[in-house]
Design goal:
The complex is a heterodimer.
Chain A (H helix, E strand, L loop, with lengths): L1 H37 L2 H21 L7 H22 L5 H6 L8 H11 L3 H12 L4 H8 L3 H22 L1
Chain B lengths: L8 H8 L5 H11 L3 H22 L8 H45 L3 H6 L4 E9 L8 E9 L10 E6 L7 E6 L4 H9 L37 E6 L1 H4 L1
Antiparallel strand pairs in B: 1-2, 2-5, 3-4
Classes of the chains: A mainly alpha, B alpha+beta.
Chain lengths: 173, 240
């Protein structure tokens, strides 16, 4: 009985240590990815915290489970998609000033604002495909594995997303 | 727009991402020769991709959420520990209360001593009452075997119950005993009741009826609430 208790304690500590290592490795990159995705710094921080906490719960349940960066991006993407869908259902729209407020002053330029606005016109699934392939650097096959779809579906969404962004940027130019 | 345009979107996406093989690239080029939109999409894709990569490269936001995450994890561990200890404490407390209740209930049910009977309500007792037959010359002793069963209500433990003895051919007499009386008290009350009658039937009634537990009625007793009252004639010499 005592061994079981000690084992459970060790498992908890191990999960915490592994999450601490994950946070140290992917903290900033994942936060920036999510912020670009949802276009809101505060929500991005909340989502990233939820992602790491989900990782902790998963590792606490099964310490031997391998956890890759792909899992972090997959979970973050799903949380971000859920957040965008909720925002769309509520009919929330952010004015341009708030869009700019999500980024630091030295990051803001006309091109960046146009790009962010163009990304904002995409649906959550198209945005996820563009962000995973173009921003995060995953291949269409890897993005398909993360999103739970086929590589051809990812490629088709990327094509449609690029077309929508091109038209959006063409209108703003 | 070419009617095969939708079918080439996946192919165009592969070209945009730089994943198209030579064969796929050739198929797309053949399609793009007749589709202005696909051609424009693919031509514009590197510009958009560069803009996204530039946006990523110029980001200087470095949030520090390590402390937030670790604090949350440690808070969860503390709350889990508190929950476990709290649940264990409650379980122990409930077990103690349950065992105490069980032990006290058993002692009340099986460990009834005369002192206990005096302090608790009468639930069941069997009494043997004797009285001489009224018209017999030899004055035999009539033994009345009376079973008294009372179940006082829990919400009215001190409510009085009337115990009546009714002899066949005579008027009923009644006496009142408290529901929490002892066996001796009930015996005393019953002893004061005239048991004259050929069958010596004792009727133990109650007010209300639920104070008297149902018991099998003795032969010749019409009232259903009458408890067992079976007289037996015992010769005086046998009595001695």
């Amino acid at each position: 009985m005592q061994n079981v208790y000690v084992l459970g304690l060790d498992r908890t500590l191990d999960a915490e240590a592994r999450v601490e290592r994950l946070v140290a490795e992917h903290e900033a990159k994942l936060a920036r990815y999510v912020r670009r995705f949802v276009n809101d710094g505060d929500f991005a921080l909340d989502i990233v915290q939820d992602v790491y906490f989900a990782a902790y719960r998963m590792l606490r349940a099964d310490p031997s489970r391998p956890l890759s960066a792909g899992w972090l991006y997959k979970t973050a993407t799903n949380y971000a998609i859920t957040h965008l869908r909720k925002k769309k259902r509520r009919g929330e729209t952010l004015p341009l000033d708030d869009n700019a407020g999500a980024f630091r002053t030295d990051e803001v330029s006309a091109l960046q604002l146009d790009l962010q606005r163009a990304l904002g016109t995409l649906g959550p699934e198209q945005l996820a495909c563009v962000m995973l392939t173009t921003y995060a650097g995953y291949s269409s096959a890897e993005a398909a594995a993360i999103l739970g779809t086929s590589p051809d579906a990812v490629r088709q969404r990327v094509c449609r997303a690029m077309r929508a962004m091109r038209k959006s940027l063409g209108e703003s130019a | 727009m070419n009617r095969d345009h939708d079918a080439f979107e996946a192919l165009a996406g592969a070209v945009m991402l730089g994943e198209a093989t030579d064969a796929e690239r050739a198929r797309f080029d053949a399609h793009a020769a007749t589709c202005d939109e696909c051609r424009a999409d693919v031509a514009c894709a590197p510009v958009l991709t560069r803009a996204v990569l530039r946006a990523r490269a110029t980001e200087t936001w470095r949030p520090s959420i390590a402390n937030l995450v670790l604090d949350r994890i440690r808070g969860t561990r503390k709350s889990r520990f508190r929950f476990t200890v709290g649940a264990l404490g409650w379980a122990v407390a409930i077990s103690i209360v349950f065992n105490l209740a069980l032990a006290s209930g058993l002692s009340m049910r099986f460990g009834s001593t005369p002192a206990d009977e005096a302090s608790s309500s009468v639930t069941a007792m069997t009494l043997d009452l004797e009285s001489p037959a009224p018209h017999a010359v030899s004055a035999p002793i009539v033994r009345h075997h009376v079973r008294v069963a009372l179940s006082p209500r829990r919400e009215h433990p001190h409510r009085s119950a009337s115990i009546a003895a009714r002899a066949k051919g005579s008027d009923a007499e009644a006496a009142t005993a408290a529901a929490d009386t002892s066996a001796d008290d009930v015996r005393h009350v019953l002893a004061g009741i005239d048991l004259d009658g050929s069958d010596g039937t004792k009727h133990v009634a109650d007010e209300p009826r639920d104070l008297c537990s149902p018991a099998p009625a003795a032969p010749g007793v019409s009232d259903a609430s009458t408890v067992d009252a079976s007289p037996s004639c015992v010769p005086p010499e046998a009595k001695r």
